[in-house]
Amino acid sequence: MKRVALLGATGSIGRQAIEIIEAHPELELCAASSGSTPLDDVDAPLKQVGGDLAELLERADPDVVLNAVVGFAGIHATLWAVENDVPLALANKESLVAGGELVGGRGRIIPVDSEHSALFQCLEGKTGIQGLVLTGSGGPFRGRTRDELASVTPEEALAHPTWRMGPKITVDSATLANKGLELIEAHFLFGLPYDSIEVVIQPTSIVHSLVRFRDGAAIAHIGYPDMRVPISYALTYPERAPTEIPGLDLTALTLQFEAPDVETFPMLELARRAGEAGGTAPCAFNAANEVAVAAFLEGRLPFLGIADVVADALDRADTAAARDLDDLLEADRRARDLAEQGLPVA
Ligand SMILES: NC(=O)c1ccc[n+]([C@@H]2O[C@H](COP(=O)([O-])OP(=O)(O)OC[C@H]3O[C@@H](n4cnc5c(N)ncnc54)[C@H](OP(=O)(O)O)[C@@H]3O)[C@@H](O)[C@H]2O)c1
Predict the structure, then answer these.
(1) I need a surface site. Which of 115, 212, 281, 292 has the fewest CB within 10 A?
(2) What is the distance between the alpha carbons of residues 94 and 18, in angstroms, rounded to a whole number?
(3) Ligand 1 pocket: which of 13, 37, 47 to mutate (most atoms <8 Å of CB)?
């Protein structure tokens, strides 16, 4: 029996995780949390709405933590798991991106992001690795021009073509900030330099990512886009429990790939620059993006303004490395302030 602490139980990943846990007799939910949504319909011995996630984990003493909180708010849970060497099924990519060296390379992290779950599986036990290829759908605005994006609404940005997800990551997918966060996430998870991590668009999200090897071979992970697969993999690792998701109908598939349009969607390159700059630049990128996305969803910032706010905050941020959590919290706070200053006056 594996006891799972599920943080972010009311979200898109959280709900699907509950479905997986209920379907597997060897998994047991020992604790569940949300930010503010009541947990009345969640069956767990320990439940917490808001409050201190590290303290909840301390009480729950889980065998695995599934961090499915959205945003930097997940940092305390991620640090708790890596510091206590409790396996961490990590959906909350923002905590790894912002946490950088304070999180990456420590503990036992099993990624839940479909691309990183794919890479994790393709890399396992392998040598001779040349580089990683992260795939992305391109989001709902793939193929559009900047002129066409000037007036898009939150409703349009929330209509993702291949994945059903929470609002923040859906907007991140539309700006390609999500692929940028994933680039930094891949760097900290797998320890490869940024110039060894490519991004390619594969619009139907069938190819979840690839690893290139020095002999010219590449190993890809393919399947239907369904987050229950990587959630189940992370929770039942290394067993790979069965799921009800069907195998691919290969004869019905045509796979197309294209380069990302980095002119129209500058967030991917901004993330790459932040990653290469190091220190707390990734933390600042993430914090400014969280502020800008919230402003866009509230109708206070146009879609194209998201990248402008983030670029400006990154230009002005002090990105000295964080020695500890206090430094990191301070870097996050400063970048949020800079991003707020860049928002249009109401
Ligand atoms: N959805 C996907 O398919 C997908 C795929 C890959 C990676 N991810 C990553 O997984 C994470 C969750 O995404 P999601 O789409 O599931 O988001 P979501 O649907 O918005 O759910 C977020 C969850 O986090 C909780 N939460 C929000 N703010 C919190 C806070 N300050 N303290 C504690 N809990 C808080 C929410 O509780 P309330 O209900 O109370 O707000 C909710 O349970 C994100 O990091 C995302 O990038 C998601």
Answers:
(1) 212
(2) 22
(3) 13
Mean pLDDT, the chain, rounded, equals 97
Output phi, psi for 209, to 5 deg: 160, 170
Q: Is the dihedral of CA 161, 165, 166, 172 positive or negative?
A: negative
pTM of the model: 0.98
Report the separation in Å between the CA atom of 109 and the middle of ligand 1, taken as the mean of its atom positions: 18
CA distances from 33 to 6, 15, 247, 271 (A): 7, 12, 32, 30
Is 169 a pocket residue for ligand 1 (Cβ < 6 Å)? Answer: yes
* 35 close to ligand 1 (CB < 6 Angstrom): yes
Instruction: Judge if the beta carbon of residue 10 lies within 6 A of ligand 1.
Output: yes
Q: Is the CB of 95 under 6 A from ligand 1?
A: no
34 vs 47: CA distance, rounded Å:
8
Q: Are 291 and 72 in contact (CB under 8 A)?
A: no
Ligand 1 pocket, residue 73 CB under 6 Å: yes
Q: Give me the phi and psi of 130, to 5 degrees please.
A: -100, -40
- Where residue 104 falls (left for φ over 0; alpha for ψ -120 to 50; beta otherwise) is beta
Judged against a pLDDT cut of 90, whether residue 255 lies above it is answered with yes
C-alpha of residue 53 to centroid of ligand 1, in Å: 14
Read off the pLDDT of each residue in 320-339 and give the average, rounded to a whole number: 98
The rounded Å distance from CA 167 to ligand 1 centre is: 9
Map residue 65 onto helix, strand or coil: strand
What pLDDT, in 10s, does the model give residues 163-222? 889 999 999 999 999 999 999 999 999 999 999 999 999 999 999 999 999 999 999 999
Which residues, listed in sequence order, are joined to residue 222 by a DSSP beta bridge?
A: 207
Q: CA dist 182 to 18, 119, 150, 199, 340, Å?
A: 24, 12, 25, 10, 24
Is 261 touching ligand 1 by the criterion CB < 6 Å?
no
